[in-house]
Amino acid sequence: MDVSVKENYVKSDSKEIWKKCLSLIKENVPALTYSTWFLPIKPISYTDNILKIEVPNDFFIEWIEEHYNTIINNVVRQILETDGKLHYVLRDEKEANLEAFNILEDKPPKIISLIEEANAIVSNGEPEFESYLIPRFKFDNFIKGEGNQLARAAAIAISENTGETSFNPFFIYGGVGLGKTHLIQAIGNRIKEKDPTKKVVYLSSEQFTIEFIDAIQSGNANEFSSFYKNMDTLIIDDIQFLIGKEKTQDYFFHIFNTLHQAGKQIILSSDKAPKDLKGLNERLVSRFQMGLTADIQAPDFETRIAILKNKAENYGITIPNDILEYMAYNITSNIRELEGSLIKILASASLNSQEIDMKLARKAVSEIATGRQVNISIDYITQIVCNYFEVDENKVREKNRKKEVVLARQVAMFLSKKLTKSSLKTIGLHFGGRDHSTVIHACNGIEQLLSDDSSTKGIVESLRNKIELGVS
Ligand code: ADP
Ligand code: MG
What we know:
By secondary structure, this protein is of the alpha/beta class. The chain folds into four domains: 3-97, 2-Layer Sandwich (GMP Synthetase, Chain A, domain 3); 146-296, P-loop containing nucleotide triphosphate hydrolases (Rossmann fold, 3-Layer(aba) Sandwich); 301-368, Orthogonal Bundle (Helicase, Ruva Protein, domain 3), CATH 1.10.8.60; 378-469, Orthogonal Bundle (Chromosomal Replication Initiator Protein Dnaa, Chain: A), CATH 1.10.1750. It has helices spanning 3-7, 14-28, 31-38, 58-79, 91-95, 111-121, 149-160, 180-194, 205-217, 221-229, 246-261, 282-288, 301-314, 321-330, 335-351, 358-368, 378-389, 393-397, 403-419, 424-430, 436-452, 454-469; strands at 42-47, 50-55, 85-90, 170-174, 200-204, 233-237, 265-270, 292-296. The strands form two sheets. Strands 5-6-7-4-8 form a five-stranded parallel sheet, with helices on both faces. The protein has a three-stranded mixed sheet with strand order 1-2-3. The radius of gyration is 28 Å and the shape is globular. Adenosine-5'-diphosphate binds next to helix 8 and helix 15. Adenosine-5'-diphosphate is lined by residues 141-143, 148, 176-182, 307, 335-336, 339.
């Protein structure tokens, strides 16, 4: 790419620039990769040497940065000027006039830059104020389960009869990635859908604090208060971040009272129940307990399957049940991770034109899940294997040389090596004190069989799935 081409750009022509980037990228990546990861990207704007591009979701950013960072950097360097930069904008957030560059880190983006970005994106007239509602968060894509039953029912009741229920404030709490933000955003979206004139605002308590500090510094604290006192519905996410911020808490307290007395709906989320918010002003804690407090628990197995099915359907893909079960079994405590591993699977499948199989699922789950069940024991493996081969468990631990016992022993050793972190020595000890060379011999023998004999391969694969799924 020569320099004269760069100088020919009309600066605002992001489409033209992105087209040039695409043609370079196309030369450097496989066709399927190109169509999966790069074609869906849309250019938004090009100003101050920053090219903004819109991507469908945060996993795109993660995936592209992980796998194509070098290519992207090269292309940007070639097509834009030397200090040219690429900014990602998420599609959902863009629709809500909101931009986040690094939502993967789960950090609430800074309100100030957000407003600037939002204004830059919305060129056709400024709305009266920004609601910060993300359209993707709806009730109809929020799967009902035992863990979220009360919270969901209350959220629906509030959005249908805002200000008329006794659920004020509505305080929802629970662990990370369980749907708190989804639910409270869904309330906001529903209220606006029913009556677009309703003044609804959503923000995290960190954003609230940043705005407050900014208002104090610019001498606008009163305006700040009256803005929020004027809302019909105030939704504040992750209220725990107000801890330690005394002055912000004071202002919030007054806003809360004004709204509450006027029968305006207040919706709050937190990682803990009000009484456990140590360090939060007592008078706030007691206000939080005036309405309805609902917790949200990790979804049970069936709900996790339903969530996965629903998400896969949204992508237009059917995933075999055993794979869904494998994922739901291994990712138990965070729906964001469940979603993440699903997207990883879809992504790698499309990247490598591969079938969605167990191998792919295993890889995606292990890359994403932090709380997966890894406590598979050698004894458990032995039990499942012996059960299958109908061999007495004690026999594999003795010096029995019968053909079926030897096979069961070797398979159990092989799977112990694959599925546990145990050393060869430890594995040997579990099988009647055999030494590590016996274990190596067994593992090699099975590896050989797996490549020679498809029926053994099928058996070992299905045993492995059983063990990993925890079904005997
Ligand atoms: P939290 O705010 O509790 O950390 P989020 O609301 O951000 O969690 O949820 C994490 C992800 O999981 C979001 O993408 C959300 O849409 C999804 N999610 C959570 N609960 C459900 C559910 N019951 N049904 C469908 N998707 C869900
Ligand atoms: Mg949240």
